[in-house]
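Summary of Year 1 activities. Much of the first year was spent building the evaluation harness for sequence design. The harness presents a backbone, in tokenized form, and records the residue chosen at every position. We chose the following record to illustrate the format because it has been used consistently in internal testing since the harness was completed.
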């Protein structure tokens, strides 16, 4: 679901906020009241639960409603002239280009989500700000990242244990009986949000942001101390730290066939043959399998095939791709004539997706426009 207001919004920067929970929900109000923010994009795929009422910036009547709808309504009340887009989806399911703003702000609860945001921000060359809380120790922290060849990214400080625990949610769990779905008190999330808002302002309105990208700040409410940690670029970081020069196309995926896309992108690349198209951040599926043994040949973006396509024709169960059923890119030569006639949209490409075009060692990066 997308809720987009018309107009370009008031003067100011475009901030993309991912996550609207214990930290993100109070941060919405702070950003909406900031004179230096002119446009907000809100991203979250969840709805509020009753347990969230005491730990997050919502009212009892918001329970059961999508988080982005609730917070978008707050923005409209606080700052009616602000440009606004609300996207009800997990960040990993949002086309990369729709996170293109002046700054990305993350208030998420897992390493995997942070890793995804870190890589998107670096590819797009956009600074991003992370925050988190530890309710058990009453800790609130924030950290900025500024894409640069010699700047530290999130993964620069990771070791093997971090990669082994990527899927573990850090849901701010605290002492039993504390309020909120994450059990973190509202004041702790609000403190992290305030620290994050201040860092956002520094990045967007002050000079030398690269220096801010080497520091993390943590507030310990138990000892009333502020700790600062410095970071450096890790030459052995698993992430390559590359930033892409993304060009926005005037056309979208709905009315363009796969064959036409190869032709248009080939001309932009100055190449005629040997091209491959890769959907940034998302592999393509060529086959689905069911536990009953049935198989189905398909062609579509992973996670965008739809319920009907993923239903087993034999037992009506759910079909999933195996490891060898995923392909990283499209290559015209191995596509059938029928597949080449399909539109990009029918394959799962969406407006805002970034397409990586390769010919040998050359790469180009193109953002699909609106249909």
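For this record, the design step produced the sequence shown next.
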């Amino acid at each position: 679901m997308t809720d987009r207001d018309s107009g370009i919004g008031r003067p100011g920067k475009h901030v993309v906020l991912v996550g609207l929970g214990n930290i993100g929900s109070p941060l919405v109000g702070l950003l909406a009241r900031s004179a230096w923010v002119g446009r907000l994009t809100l991203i979250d795929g969840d709805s509020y639960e009753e347990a969230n009422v005491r730990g997050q910036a919502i009212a009892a009547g918001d329970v059961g409603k999508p988080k982005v709808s609730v917070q978008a309504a707050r923005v409209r009340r606080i700052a009616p002239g602000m440009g606004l887009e609300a996207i009800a989806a997990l960040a990993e399911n949002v086309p990369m280009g729709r996170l293109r703003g002046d700054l990305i702000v993350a208030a998420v609860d897992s390493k995997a989500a942070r890793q995804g945001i870190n890589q998107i921000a670096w590819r797009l060359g956009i600074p991003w700000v992370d925050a988190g809380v530890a309710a058990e120790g009453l800790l609130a922290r924030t950290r900025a990242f500024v894409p640069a060849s010699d700047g530290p990214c999130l993964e620069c400080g990771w070791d093997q244990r971090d990669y082994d625990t990527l899927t573990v949610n850090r849901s701010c769990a605290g002492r039993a009986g504390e309020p909120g779905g994450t059990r973190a008190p509202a004041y702790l999330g609000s403190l992290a949000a305030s620290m994050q808002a201040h860092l956002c302002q520094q990045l967007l309105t002050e000079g030398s942001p690269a220096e801010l990208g080497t520091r993390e700040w943590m507030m310990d409410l138990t000892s009333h101390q502020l700790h600062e940690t410095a970071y450096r670029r890790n030459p052995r970081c698993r992430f390559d730290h590359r930033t892409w020069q993304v060009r926005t196309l005037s056309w979208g995926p709905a009315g363009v066939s796969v064959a036409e896309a190869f032709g248009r992108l080939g001309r932009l690349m100055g190449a005629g043959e040997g091209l491959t198209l890769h959907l940034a951040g998302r592999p393509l599926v060529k086959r689905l399998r069911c536990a009953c043994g049935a198989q189905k040949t398909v062609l579509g973006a992973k996670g965008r095939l739809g319920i009907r396509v993923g239903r087993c024709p034999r037992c009506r169960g759910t079909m999933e791709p195996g490891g060898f059923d995923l392909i990283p890119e499209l290559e015209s030569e191995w596509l059938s004539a029928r597949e080449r006639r399909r539109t990009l949209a029918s394959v799962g490409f969406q407006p805002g997706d970034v397409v990586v075009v390769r010919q040998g060692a050359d790469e180009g990066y193109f953002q699909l426009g609106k249909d």
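The CA atoms of residues 175 and 182 lie 10 Å apart. Quantitative recovery figures across the full test set are reported in Table 2.
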